[in-house]
Amino acid sequence: MDVNALMQYFITYGPAAIFVIVLLEYLNLPGFPAGVIMPLAGIWASRGGLSFFLTMVITVAAGLTGSIILYGLGRCGGEIFLKKYYRRFPKQKEMIEGKIEYLRQRGGVGIFVSKLLPMVRTLISIPAGVMRMNFKSYCVSSTLGIAVWNLVFVGAGYLFGDAVFTMFG
Fold it and tell me: N or C: which end of the chain has fewer CB within 10 A?
């Protein structure tokens, strides 16, 4: 699917499309990466499809929703899942346990920083749930990290989108 087709999807389905696609991305499900979706949302905003502020609100809300779902999965069944996962992939136990320990030591700051790192940003929610991190602290830290991450990508699309769209569209 090319950039024009994705933009048409936004035009046809509006803000709901942005929310659903970003939610799926934050759930770490297959689809389009944030590096494609977020700038396109910014381009759409720059072309008057939606205000920049509302685009940011939608993408942050979708990111936080996905993060809370993964946190909940970690909290409700993460330990059982991890035991099975460790049996199947024993070499990854040390790395995952390291992430949990990192969160124990760093708390909300660890979540914030993790939300700024590719790949880690979506997966860190599960260990946070497993270790039963304070939910309020988790949500505040996640929201701040998600907002910074999304601002960079949506902002890039908003500021530079027409040039990129013209080159690749």
Answer: N
